[in-house]
Amino acid sequence: MRSYLYVPGASFAATAADAVIAQPDGSAAPGSEEAHAGPDIWVMIDAGEQSHRELRSVVRSGLTGVCVAGARSASELAALGAALAGAEEGVGLPVGRIAVMPVLETAAAVLGAAEIARAPRVARLHLGERALCDALRIRASPDERELLWLRSMVVAASAAAGIGAPIGDVCADQDMFGPSADWLRRLGFAGRACAGEGQVLMANEIFANG
Prior knowledge:
By secondary structure, this protein is α/β, with parallel strands linked by helices.
């Protein structure tokens, strides 16, 4: 899974991305009851019980999983797993069908990455570098050396838990996207989140060599 394209709302145009991450805007979540062809579909939800109550409007047969923004702990994700089981049963899906991808956006989440990676349903980790840099007052230089320890911890936690390699955050600087993605690849990341089809095509090419 090399490229994860962030899309607003419930619909998206044809894309070369391996997966899309929908950011709900109050409309129905993407996916359908029919067999799904195309990119994997993930929906972004917030951590916490409020999101648990909204899962029935999210879970459907065409959904690959949920990205959990601000994921904090393995116990929190275990509670989410139980709520997902109820939502799956409610729409006739096998329990355990919907995967979870925690977005690590705090120092506590990164330091607890080994436990979070072993939580129920977790398929891979998503490193939320922009929020982390703000929280830790990191000012990354062009070669991003300041982010090495964060990235390496998440790669090691994923490997130790036996889950998929992590994905990196969106890069707002179009000129830096390629070099940054190549470094993520060399560090052990499987792919990265993208903003736009141009970044998707670059990510597909760079991470195909990983």
